[in-house]
Fold these 2 entries.
Entry 1:
Amino acid sequence: MAIAGKSSPLKRWDLTCRILAAVPGGYALSAFAGICIALWLPGLRVERAMIGMLIGLLIWPVTFMMSFAISDGRKVFGGTMVALLALIGLAVLKGWRP
Amino acid sequence: MKGTFRASMAWLHTGLGLITGWVLFAIALSGTLSVFRESISTWMRPELPTAPVQTIDATAHAVAWLTDHAPKSPAWYLAVPTHRAPYVFGTWEKPGGSYIQKALNPLTGSPDGIRDTRGGEFFYRFHFELQLPYPYGRLIAAVAALALVVALVTGLIIHRRIFADFFTFRPNKGQRSWLDAHNLLGVIAFPFHLMISFTGAVTLVTMLLPWGPQAVYKQDIMAGYTDLNPAIETRPASGKPGHLTSVLPVLREAEKRFKGAGISQVYIYNPSDAASLITVMAGNNGTISTLSHSLTFDGTTGLLMREHVETRPAVRTYTFLYGLHIARFTPDVTRWLYFLSGLMLTAVIGSGMRLWTVKRLRLPHHLGHVLTDRLNVGVLAGAPLAFASYFLANRLLPPMSAHRADHEVQCVFIVWGLALLFALVRPARRTWPEMLTTCAFACFAIAAVSSPWTNPVTQSTALVSLFFSGAFGYAAFRALNGKAKQT
């Protein structure tokens, strides 16, 4: 509990970065990884969509844990954003629109 | 975050466990009971004939009854009898759009004379819908399942001496004993816990992550569902009245083609239309996966129109993971192992919640800790009590009263609400022994109302209830003694 209990402004900022990366960030990564796999893989539509969903299901918990395992909260947030933008770019390239 | 890797994982384990613990406890307990949902459904319908059931004949009787009583329904969905559930479980759509669910007598096809109840289906639905409106319950359950995956993996990371502690249990040591129990129960069935939580998330994945399918199917998301499960594909009604063919030869043909896998479900679409369809799904004898093989017949001629054997690798992976979770494939021994492992998972979650408060209440604490401690009683002892009252309500409410199925379910939530209120207004050290004693009596009462104990379902229900009664009684005794030692 040493991490949450003491809430100096710096640590609180660090924690906010991690939570943003873990919860909405992790979910968005899963969603866009699923979209990219569904759009880019060859094969039947249902197969591509299914592979995307199952891999997405693995990505969220892994991102979630990594968000709290990596030593610097800002790196976590930055890394998640870069990965997310890359995936969004890949999806848009293949014709995905919000 | 200056802490080491392990410390941050410990923080995550504790925080996530605290947030999701109560929901996960209720999900795990109802899921564990759902392992025997067919048996519970049978226990809750003591009016059912006890003679061995002919699957195909019973299904034909049900179809004949529905032809007379629900001809205008757009679809009938029938789960055929098994040795665990010796009746046809029918779901049909009223022309207005609402659904009726009833157990149909295997000898007559009629629901008359069988008490109206949700049976084990209540636990099954509660397990992933939490009695909340669609889709919120399912989304909460899906997120909770993934939180459990994270809690299990982080729990393994922070557990320092897995092998040595496997043989360690130090009773009568307060916090130390709770930690030992939490670790022991978590490690013994760890592979099961991880499998059941991840596959649980898989069963809800199409709701949690619908974005991939939406990207490839665009507006036509129904095409996605029929691609995933071709057995739900139907054809529009022609508008011309038709006469449903005799289902006996259709079912015999299906049984032959399924080569020993058995029949699990029969769907009949537009039964009184010339364009009716009969879809038959294979059972789970010899396959873990659900939806592995289905046949669609023309409803008027009885001729085979379409056969689907699942060979697509990704869809097979999905149906395999799905089947692993819902465990329809399991012989009795495996089913009992699922039940025991499920109980262990429930106990891991419960002991984790208890540990959180035991650890904090020894030190200077605040209102939040006290409230968590009290709500722990309301959930950890309140949920079993509420679920036990469901069984008792099934026997105590008049068998043929109106809306009794709804009243049974209301009973669960009234009892649970009262338990939470009771636990909230009194100190936990008093409510623990009181609530646990009530649970013990309630479980004993289930064993008593299972009489006459003449068939395997009532006998095993009585035995399991007696075991729970003893376990709750012992826990109440310990809680009382612990209190005596403290004061």
Note: Chain B touches chain A at residues 1-3, 5, 7-9, 11-12, 14-15, 146, 149-150, 153-154, 198, 201-202, 205-206, 208-209, 211-213, 215-217, 224, 227-228, 312-315, 317-318, 321 (CB under 8 Å).
Entry 2:
Amino acid sequence: MADQSDAILVLLPLLIPLAAAALTAVLWRSPRAQGIVAAVGLAALVAVSLLLLRLVLEEGVVAKQFGSWAAPFGVSFVVDRLSAGMVVVSSILALAAAIFGMADLKTREVRGGFHPLFFGLLVGVNGAFLTGDIFNLYVWFEVMLITALGLLTLGRTKARLDGALRYAVLNLVSTIFFLMAIALLYGVTGTLNMADLARVLPETEPSAALTISSLLFLLGFGIKAGFFPLFFWLPASYHTASIVVSAVFAGLLTKVGIYAAFRVFTLIFEVEGSGIRTMVGVLAAGTMLFGVFGAATQYDVRRILSFHIVSQIGYIMLGLAISTEAAMAAAIFYIIHHIIVKANLFLLAGAIYRASGTFDVRKSGGLMRGSPLLAILFLIPALSLAGIPPFSGFWAKFLIVDVTFRDEAAWLGAIALFVGLLTIFSMTKIWMEAFWKAPAGPRTTPRAVPRPMLAAIGGLAAITLAISFAPEPLIAFADGAARSMADPATYIAAVFGETTLAEVEQ
Amino acid sequence: MNLVFSLAIAAIMGAGIYLVLSRNVMRIIFGVSLMSAGTNLLIFLAGGLQEIAPPVIEKGEEVLGTASANPLPQALILTAIVIGFSLVAFAAALALQVYRSDGTIDTREMTAAEDLGTPFTTGGATNG
């Protein structure tokens, strides 16, 4: 059992945004004070998440029981490498988005409650990453959903309300499926603690209820994560939000769905050797293809990027479809690379809007001449997303495609390569229209992009470059994370403590 | 008895899904609330429905008697009801706001989000 300070460290990524959300809500009338609280809160969150990562790297899986109720009766919080890594990336992303927001957020949005909702969203996201209880995971999903809806409707434009409605209905349906899956699982096993489920399920007789439960989990997380053919709410709503919100959604929310799917389908259910495997493979192929096809026809930068989220989710799903240790490691590498790159591209879309006055690439142009720095900053995540060496996307795609060819799923690898080609097409479209061609829109000379925007974009681009030129540490980290996921025993041992596990094994 | 409950839950869920597939926003919201009600009943059924004592510890006893109901599903359902209620309330408020700004609750006529940067026109909206 970890000592007391370690246990508190597990809770801090949750408590800090919760306190910040409460404080900013109290300071509702003073946007200035809210800004200060937000800055302090986010800096503390980044620091704490890095400490948590160090703790996990040193000690392995760390668990904390709420209210001293012994597992499996109380709610457990469990951190392994994957959850610690996700918490670190999400807090860095939140910091970058908030810096960008200093120049981008309208006072109307701040007065409408941006800060409390933003921290509320972070509470939900971090809670989902850290919890070790399946019903608790459902509660965090709902926290995320309600705060995300609040953020989405901040501006109350027609398009936003429209997008929010689609987002609300499909995500409500997804959480209902998730809850049904939990109900069936509880009916069979009588427990909700994920470590306990991982212990009990291998000894449980396969039954129809378990099969339906696993499919409902796949369906519920699939809608959340944007799997084919359930992704249509995503490009229908993400592009309407204000750009800070879009960037955070793009970086984090679908990835929480993916994270939950990874957790459930490694710890509780097995993808390997079950019928789910082919299904996940087909879904991954569809997700990659239809996402990229959708992007090819669009002209709004944010919509192009929204469709690309879907197509990139397909690559991450490939990892789950192959489901070997190497595949999971590749998928984890891909998730971390993708969160940074995709959020950065959305921030760049905001910068393009600021410079050229439009999100429609047909109407903008001349940015390469007008703001060459922005052009260079765009190239880094754009080429990385497309998988051009030496950028981080190349390593991520290389690892994933390599795994598919090794594991006799070459057709999936072939589709992945083809989709990579079409991704270059989309990125080239943005490049040609917004940066290369002569200005065609409302502004003939692009406006200067404010410093905080460039700082946020530059910071994320620097992380991308760091991963690009020194991928080994991250690959090693992803390998370690995949290894600990492949072996649920360490996870179970951390939750129950060594002694109880020994008793169980006897 | 379980079969009767299962069929009833199936009927509620079926009606909910039918309503969600409608084009009328209000019907969709009714459908979602029916589905969440069905799910709550499913949790109840999964927890084991029997005609036994409520989960209250008798006076003078230290632990719950074996012939009492499982309290956990009830706790789960309470949580799920609260969450479901707040989300449905939000969705209803959202529908009201959509009706005020669009003047319709027919999803076919709500195209403001799709119109941004659409490939079917030469110039899209510049709405931020």
Note: Chain B has one domain: 2-51+70-109.
